[in-house]
Prior knowledge:
Number of helices: 19
Protein name: Benzoylformate decarboxylase
Number of domains: 3
Helix content: 25-40%
CATH architecture of the largest domain: 3-Layer(aba) Sandwich
Bound molecules: ligand TZD, calcium ion
GO molecular function: acetolactate synthase activity; flavin adenine dinucleotide binding; magnesium ion binding; thiamine pyrophosphate binding
Family: Belongs to the TPP enzyme family.
Number of strands: 20
CATH class of the largest domain: Alpha Beta
Shape: globular
Domain Thiamine pyrophosphate enzyme N-terminal TPP-binding: 9-116
CATH topology of the largest domain: Rossmann fold
CATH superfamily of the largest domain: Thiamin diphosphate (ThDP)-binding fold, Pyr/PP domains
Radius of gyration: 24 Å
Domain Thiamine pyrophosphate enzyme central: 191-323
Amino acid sequence: MNKVHSTTYTLLRKNGMLKVFGNPGSNELPFLKNFPADFEYILALHEGAVVGIADGHALVSQQPSLVNLHAASGTGNAMGALTNAWYSHSPLVITAGQQARSLMGVEAMLSNVDAAQLPKPLVKWSYEPSCSGDVPRAISQAIHMANQPAKGPVYVSIPHDDWDKEIDEDALLLAEREVTTAGSLSIEQLASLTQRINKATNPVLVLGPDVDAYQANDLAIMLAEKMASPVWVAPSAPRCPFPTRHALFRGALPASLAGIAQKLDGHDLIVVIGAPVFRYHQHAPGRYLPKNAELIHVTCDLQEAARAPMGNAYVADIAAMLKSVLPEIKQTMRPMPKGLPVPLPYPTTQHGPLAPEEVFDDLNELAPADAVYVKESTSTVTAFWQRVEMRHQGSYFFPASGGLGFGLPAAVGAQLATDRQVIAVIGDGSANYGITALWTAAQYKVPVVFIILKNGTYGALRWFSRLLEAETAPGLDVPGLDFCAIAKGYGVEAILTNTREEFRAALKKALDAQGPMLIEVPTTTIEP
Ligand code: TZD
Ligand code: CA
């Protein structure tokens, strides 16, 4: 007879899920025993880091990541990271060990009481199998739920005495299953969408993270060039869907009602693709749309479509939609707008901390053109988008819900999934929420370049405190952190750089290194 254990590993193998991202406890040991040689366990020291690493891996590999957490406490530690996975449509299959079935009712230590309830509302689906024979089927369901549009995290709680139970051989049918979705537009939808675009006199495109997730960046370029329309990146951008030095690129939209209406003023048609409408942040009241503008929304996420407060939505596969729309769009006779000016090199600071702009100019010059940036410094977003050219799909990742603690771990997971150089640009505030991922980078020799921008403060909150007239709020500074000492403590080589020359030399060294390296750079505080 087969066991639940071997049947589940067969299922995972057939789905290409050979890495387990986890932090173990007693409830998980029966799953991890006799760990098959073709699988790899990636240990992280805190569950926020576990999920961040798995998230980065899923975003870059485009495949579901398997996560294994310890019961309720491990799940609780991971919840903040789940906010990002939820909004970035990250296919995470999260499993958590449960007490033995006979001990759950008396709430023995480490019982996950009402386990399926715990991770809601940050998962697409959550479940505890009713018997051991249902465990592989539940994990199969979890994989397909996570990996179909809109992708996202799912959760399965598994009593630890289930793994050793025998199971019917028909459970192996699960390993042969495929679930696919089409998501193309109907002929009528295609006609209504393309007619509306073709008759617009001054359309604008707003592209979001799912253009990048569907690897539809080149299709988006073709569409933009046919329409000769400026391209904005949707607000609060967690990915980069369009080359940032293309003549049609206009930057990321501000994350406020008033700001968006102002930037899009004068357009009669706003076409939003692969983003929510919209991810607002700062409260600046205003109208949803500029005067006389109409909005069309194309998204892979029904919830995004349904909750939008304006516009007509099409729920579709982003790449399939663009492929079917493109031949129907007329090449416009409108002249191509001029590109944005490339910013002048930032002058080198002679005394005192460097400006973040200097760091970004050096990255732009010295890092590989196809580098993958994982960014989590909140006050430097605009400067980064202006100064670091991003050309290719999958070049940029930022916490999709704004939950800090994503960047440092996600960079490790991203680098485990790609040969492209991953560069983590992290604030001295943000770094602390996911700092233990440095240990995983060191132990697994993951050659991420970590750059810590140290301005001694929660820079973005300083800016917000002026916006909200709350400058007197306490708790906004983070002095006294020594990131080189911290990195060394976790086994990562680290360099403090005070001058431009030192930073450039350290960056070159880090880019050549075989393992991870951290560069700590004291910087000034700028505004997002
Ligand atoms: N805790 C968590 C988990 N997520 C958050 N977003 C915050 C707190 C609040 N927060 C922000 O929204 S931005 C920010 C905080 C604390 C400051 C981050 O500081 P930093 O970056 O040093 O990483 P900057 O460049 O100095 O803003
Ligand atoms: Ca800071």
